[in-house]
Amino acid sequence: MAYHDALTGLPGRRALKEALLKLDRQYTVAMVDIDHFKKFNDWYGHDVGDHVLCMVASKLARVTGGGKGFRYGGEEFTVIFPCSLLDVIPHVERLRKTIETSEFILRGPERPKKKPENPATIKKSQRSVSVTVSIGVAERDDRHNTPLEVIKAADNALYRAKGYGRNQVST
Fold this sequence. Notes:
This protein is of the alpha+beta class. The protein has one domain: Alpha-Beta Plaits (2-Layer Sandwich). It has helices spanning about 15-20, 35-45, 45-60, 85-100, 145-165, and strands at about 30-35, 70-75, 75-80, 105, 130, 135-140, 170. The strands form two sheets. The protein has a five-stranded mixed beta sheet with strand order 2-3-1-6-7, sandwiched between helices. Helix 2 (about 35-45) packs antiparallel against helix 3. It is globular and about 50 Å long.
């Protein structure tokens, strides 16, 4: 249980637990899961899976709305927002769209090790793959009074998003 996730650079599970203890009365939790992540590992290898995790983490690190991202485990992330669910929805929807529209180029022999200053210089023969996420959101309220209950409610909403077809936000 590290404070910092070495792969993604995001705060880890232990930092999440501490952040949850410091929350005020009003907060919202978003659970974010990479869609079909196992296929990335199976089809392209674990190195590509690691790159996908890092790409998603970089987007989470810049989430708007005052959210703070954490690596929850595996291909799952948590974002804590210090505001109501209604205030959070536009920000998690923007996050989802940002990830969906980010071009993820498979690392092949022609792909440079570092991102070029001018992405137009990347050869068009390289294959890109789509990365999407499903997001479940829940806020602290009378039914979900503790951080653990809010996380569970957000996780249940995440499973609804996946059940509805993935690449969407559910409450």
